[in-house]
Amino acid sequence: MDLLMWTGIFIVSLAGLIKASDYFTASAEQIGLMIGMSPYVVGATIVAVGTSMPELVSSMFAVYQGSSEIVVGNVIGSNVANILLILAMGAIFSKSVLTVDVKAMYADNLMLIASAMFFGITIIDRLFTRGEAGFFLLAMILVVVYTIRKERSNKAARLRTGNEPPKRIRPFLILIISALGVFFGAKFTILAIINIAPLLNIGAEVIAVSAVAIGTSLPELAVTMAAVRKNQTEIIIGNVLGSNIFNTFAVMGFSGLLGDLAVPDDLIFIGMPVMVAASLLLIFILRDSKVNKWEGWLFLLFYGYFILKIFNLV
Q: Given Cys at both, which of 3, 89, 100, 303 links 84, Cβ 3.0 to 4.6 Å?
């Protein structure tokens, strides 16, 4: 009876978290375009932060509830899902090959690899400390400053065209209301995980790296499928890169400031290597500035194997 109740709470709260994040992201994207940001930078910053809100808020609640292992599982699982599942779906369902200006995103590629490598180095001792959290937040600040400075010249050029979008109040109101929805959805999602894990006799980090990671990655999937319909391929790739960098530096950073984060062995020996390998594979594939459909299917196959491995089914 307890399992049924907490499973119901998990499903409802996660659905609420995802829906609230969807509204949050949509309003944040509108605000970004209203102030004159380019589609790629909107994807790599505002949309990336908005779609990562579930990971951030749920991770901070996990630390507060004394289940810090959920944080690392959530970040690793979400980053793997973004590349091997979300980007794969974008490549598979896109009417054309996903393309991006690889020269323009050269620095973003380096930041993605650097974030994955720093992540692996800091958790190898099975503990993520407050000092390491501070370093990650500093890195996140540098990423944001770099992105904003890179955007200034592009924004000035767009403003000279006289096509600045109209200013509206409604997106700001939706942003505030949806943020409250994210807060309460995350709170009850984490409470449900903490109660479900012992009932199923599995680690909370396993639920985090699989079910929660997939659930909290649904906003990224929604953004990806919307971009597919509009044939805005740069937003798809920019969103994945930005979300992963934000997950690593900001989610780990803010959560780590609340207390040291425990790192279970299965995340070190299975989750982390897959995350680093997926990041390297993505950069390798993007060398020719595109992601083909067959590469999307390959990513999806790797993701299926990852989920089976994390549950010790293969």
A: 303
pLDDT score, position 161:
47
Task: Choose the most confident range, by mean pLDDT, from 14-18, 34-38, 251-255.
Answer: 251-255
* C-alpha span between 109 and 23 (Å, rounded): 28
| Whole-number Å distance between alpha carbons of 303 and 296 | 11
Distance in angstroms (rounded) separating the CA atoms of residues 237 and 231: 12
Residue 90, classed as helix, strand or coil, is: helix
Listed residue (174, 185, 226) closest to 18, CA to CA: 185
Rg of the chain taking only CA atoms, in angstroms: 19
3-state DSSP percent of the chain in helix, strand and coil, to 5: 80, 5, 15
Paired residues of 290 in beta bridges: 99
163-191 pLDDT tens trace: 555 567 888 888 788 878 877 887 788 88
